[in-house]
Amino acid sequence: MSDARTQLLKLVKMQELALEIQAAHAVVEDAPARIEEAESRFRERNAEYVDIKERYDAIDADRRSRSGELATLEETRKHYQDSLMQVKNQREYAAVLKEIDAAKASIGDHEDAILASMDEIESLKTELASRAEHIETERGIVEKERAEVEAAVAEATARIERATAERTEIESQLPAALVANVRRVEAGRKGLFLVKVERESCSACHVRMRPQVYQEIRQASKIHVCGSCRRYLYAEAAFTAAPVSSSAPPPENGANVEAVNGGPV
Ligand SMILES: [Zn+2]
After folding, report:
1. Which residue from 30, 39, 5 is spatially nearest to 242, judged by alpha carbons?
2. Which of 67, 141, 165, 227 has its CA 20 to 30 Å from the CA of residue 82?
């Protein structure tokens, strides 16, 4: 088996792996959007519930933060209350009293607000409870979709790792210049650096090749790139048919690459 044939077979495998990695990356990248889609379908189906829940969460959060502030304000008030005993003159006394009044006013505000929200909280709670069973089923649907997406991501990540390792191994067996050029073409051609020859033309850009070039591709006696799109070319017949003996000298490592139009790569 000629060097060119061996190298082409490796390129075919590398292209397969590259497309596999590309597809797996797409699975990983699409995952957040797929989860968001499931969440968005949940929100659409349960718009009324979502409104009630959001209102409940907002009031509840407000109540919690006011309760927290109340504790601090009570401490402040107590602190000033105690320091009343240590004031030395009327002016200090008035200042401390002013602080106590301010704390008391804030405490009053928070207590009023908490009290006012209590009725609504209770009625929202009842509303939420009456929908709990249905919502649990609905959340189950979302969680199932999320689990499926996460499983697909885990599988794709493992596939990327395995295919990347395999590609690295293949690349290590090829001339560095060839690998570098493959990567250049790959980056410029959306991951497709190797295509089949069909009807004596590049199957990607349909540029026709000279008969001699076509023969060399059919025999896999030389590695060629398309003169137009610069992708590497191969003919399936080269790997299925019995090797055709070639009168050409054995190609040197990676150097024996010609463009279809005859120019150097
Ligand atoms: Zn082409």
Report:
1. 5
2. 67
Residue labelled with tokens 């005859």: 262
For 83, list phi and psi in degrees, rounded to 5: -70, -10
- Residues 6+ away with beta carbon under 8 Å from 252: 3
CA of 223 to the centre of ligand 1 (A): 14
Element (H or E) spanning 106, and its range? helix 90-171
Task: Label residue 216 exposed, middle or buried (CB < 10 Å: 0-12, 13-18, 19+).
Answer: buried
Global pTM? 0.67
Ligand 1 centroid vs 209 CA: distance in angstroms? 10
Domain ranges of the chain: 12-170, 175-259
Q: 256 CA distance to ligand 1 centroid (A)?
A: 19
Tokens, residue 58: 């907002």
| pLDDT (tens digit per residue) in 52-100 | 999 999 999 999 999 999 999 999 999 999 998 888 999 999 999 999 9
Query: 34 C-alpha to center of ligand 1: Å?
Result: 35
The string of pLDDT tens digits covering residues 195-240 is 999 999 999 999 999 999 999 999 999 999 999 999 999 999 888 8
Q: How far does residue 199's CA lie from ligand 1's centre (Å)? A: 13
Reported as type and span, the H/E element at residue 194 is strand 194-198
Q: How far is the CA of 29 from the centre of ligand 1 (A)?
A: 29
| CA end-to-end distance (rounded Å), the chain | 23
Distance 202 CA to ligand 1 centre (A): 5
The amino acid occupying position 186 is E
